[in-house]
Design goal:
The complex is a heterodimer.
Chain A (H helix, E strand, L loop, with lengths): L2 E6 L7 H14 L4 E5 L7 H4 L10 H5 L5 H4 L1 E2 L6 E4 L12 H14 L2 E5 L6 H8 L3 E6 L3 H17 L1 H5 L5 E9 L1 H5 L6 H8 L3 E6 L2 H9 L10 H13 L16 H9 L1
Helix pairs in contact in A: 1-12
Chain B lengths: L1 H7 L8 H20 L5 H13 L8 E9 L2 E9 L12
Antiparallel strand pairs in B: 1-2
Classes of the chains: A alpha/beta, B alpha+beta.
Chain lengths: ~270, ~90
């Protein structure tokens, strides 16, 4: 049975697109046929994060409007097997995404794929509501920062009231927390909300903690999902989050500050 | 003078700011979750109740509130009237 995953947050700039790209790539690496869909109509960015912007001919909106077939709009990822991208349009048209159109496409995607990852736009407007409407599973991305956590809570409310599952009275959508840009050192000093603080407030199970990392910008600069950077802390954290999603029991790394090794301490004295 | 300024400046204070953040967030979110469960008729009921109460009590000088509460999953509506003013006329007691 195919599963629809929405990557959402409410607040902008917390790492939804980075997470969507990494998560979808991670699922494909584990052998699951996966498509990642950009719901941010007018401000498409998934294509450059995945380095396929020059290959976009038709997009999601063309398919909604029946101007193109789904197979013509899907882009096969050049790096990862089993991975496809459905880019969105750059034309700003508030009514471009219709419930009927989105439903038709999700239905069609469910037939061909194991996982459909929906990259939600920020905010609580139509695009964000459309992205979560058909989802079976929500990845709630939040930074350990008050505005982001507050918006995440609003988003949880919308998932519980505005999703298809909620409207039909079906089994509620699974909701998991993904904390990004986490600095364990600052949290341990009481300068930043800790993982426990955010868990206490939002009260949903933790899927992963992605550390604040230079590797994120390095990856997006090059258009490579950070999960492919196996050496990086953020890449490892995403790999672990995908493993947990697929049912594996993996300990959370990067929650406690790492103890500097002796030679690092010595180097640190000069830095 | 230098020391004093350092302690008064919240950006330089030694207080753990994460604790403040958590307290503020908990309060905000508890309030916002409550708003979400507000029945659709609540604003109208609130206005009607205040209109009725104002016929007998000066709203400016007394504390009157109509609140929606949701404790232990049991929604309730609270009307609180605290009388501060000494009545101009003596209230008639039966």
């Amino acid at each position: 049975m195919a599963k629809v995953i929405v990557v959402t947050s409410g607040k902008g700039g917390v790492g939804k697109t980075t997470t969507s790209a990494a998560f979808a790539t991670g699922l494909a690496l584990r052998g699951r046929k996966t498509v990642v869909v950009d719901f941010d109509v007018g401000l498409r960015n998934l294509d450059i994060v995945m380095d396929c912007e020059r290959r976009v001919v038709y997009d999601f909106i063309n398919v909604v409007k029946r101007e193109a077939k789904l197979s013509e709009a899907l882009i096969r990822d050049k790096r990862t097997k089993n991975l496809f991208i459905l880019p969105t349009s750059q034309i700003q048209d508030k009514d471009a995404l219709t419930k009927e159109g989105v439903e038709r496409i999700i239905k069609e995607l469910r037939r061909d794929f194991d996982y459909i990852v929906c990259d939600s736009p920020a905010g609580i407007e139509k695009g964000a509501l459309m992205a979560l409407y058909y989802a079976d599973y929500a990845v709630l991305v939040t930074n350990p920062e008050i505005a982001s956590v507050r918006d995440a809570d609003r988003m949880l409310g919308l998932i519980q009231s505005k999703s298809r599952r909620a409207e039909l009275g079906d089994e509620p959508m699974a909701q998991r927390l993904l904390i990004t840009r986490y600095d364990a050192k600052r949290a341990s000093r009481g300068e930043m909300l800790s993982v426990q603080d955010v868990e206490d407030i939002l009260a949903i199970p933790l899927l992963g903690v992605i550390p604040e990392s230079r590797s994120i910008l390095r990856a997006s600069n090059q258009g490579i999902p950070v999960i492919l950077d196996k050496e990086s802390d953020a890449g490892q954290a995403y790999t672990d989050a995908v493993a947990r999603f697929l049912g594996g029991k993996v300990e959370h790394k990067f929650v406690q500050p790492s103890k500097p090794k002796f030679f690092q301490k010595v180097l640190g004295a000069w830095a | 003078m230098g020391m004093k300024r350092i302690y008064l400046n919240p950006f330089r204070s030694r207080v753990r700011s994460a604790n403040i953040a958590k307290q503020r967030l908990s309060r905000i979110i508890a309030h916002e979750r409550m708003q979400k469960n507000l029945p659709a008729f609540f604003p109208e009921l609130q206005r009607d109740l205040l209109t009725v109460v104002s016929k007998y009590v000066d709203l400016e000088r007394n504390e009157v509130s109509v609140l929606f509460a949701n404790q232990d999953r049991r929604p309730s509506i609270e009307l609180n009237v605290t009388l501060n003013e000494t009545p101009k006329r003596k209230w008639a007691f039966r």
